[in-house]
Write a structure and sequence with these properties.
The chain is α/β, with parallel strands linked by helices and 239 residues long. The chain starts with a strand and ends with a helix. Helix content is 38%, strand content 21%. The protein has an 8-stranded mixed sheet. Helix 4 packs antiparallel against helix 9.
Length: 239
């Protein structure tokens, strides 16, 4: 029975208890929950009721990528997921996504999701982009990141082949990793929304929008040559 490790980076987030409750409500039970306290100074008391059921790691503040890497390096599962401490998994998220990956022999998958507000109310239609073929997927990923990091499930062999998150990237470490994965593996999409993604004033994507755009260009430039070659290879297949 496959084991799934779920890494939860935590830094001064008041919603951490809601995130953890969603993990204990998973219908798939062969999971390990790894909470990485990234030098947090607030809300750590919300984790206390869960301490006997999780792997809890404290570290100095180093950013989300370093917290995720710490979790991945301590994970023992066959597959790895990431849940931000302000987001929520649907109860069947692990079960449905794992079943799809095993069935398709996939190494990387992502799902649709809804956005929620501070109170957990859904505020958007279903969000999920999956281009109709590999060529269009490559084009879309060259233009920008279409994948919500908390919707992904990754086989641990992926990390063994291409490495983990780049800790020098404070905001776009996920986009960088997805591009590296795309150069080596097929993506699998689960259209069912299995994640609730919280929109609030303190979220990093709102507070650091300008820096994120700058870092995004850096990531695009870094992978430009390899992604262009990937595009050329796919075009040749279709001729």
């Amino acid at each position: 029975m496959e084991k799934v490790s779920i890494v939860v980076p935590f830094y001064n987030c008041p919603y951490i208890d809601k995130a953890l409750e969603s993990l204990f409500n998973q219908t798939y039970k062969n999971i390990e929950i790894i909470v990485v306290n990234d030098g947090s100074t607030l809300y750590s008391e919300k984790i206390v009721p869960f301490l006997d059921k999780i792997i809890y790691i404290k570290k100095e503040n180093g950013g989300t990528a370093s917290a995720l890497n710490t979790g991945i390096n301590n994970a023992t599962g066959d597959y790895v997921c990431w849940l931000s401490s302000d987001d929520i998994f649907y109860p069947e998220k692990t079960e449905i996504q794992l079943e799809a990956m095993v069935r398709e022999d996939a190494r990387f998958s992502y799902t649709s999701y809804y956005c929620i507000d501070d109170n957990g109310e859904i505020i958007t239609p279903i969000i999920g982009i999956y281009p109709p073929n590999q060529l269009e997927l490559i084009k879309a990923m060259i233009r920008g990141n279409i994948i919500n990091g908390c919707s992904v499930m990754i086989h641990r062999k992926v990390f063994e082949l291409i490495g983990i998150f780049d800790e020098s990237l404070l905001y776009t470490h996920d986009y960088d990793l997805w591009l590296r994965i795309l150069q080596n593996f097929k993506f699998h999409f689960v259209p069912q929304p299995l994640l609730l993604y919280r929109i609030h004033t303190e979220m990093g994507s709102k507070k650091h929008e300008g820096l994120i755009k700058m870092e995004n260009r850096l990531v695009v430039n870094r992978h430009h040559a390899k992604m262009k070659q990937l595009l050329v290879n796919e075009l040749r297949k279709q001729q």
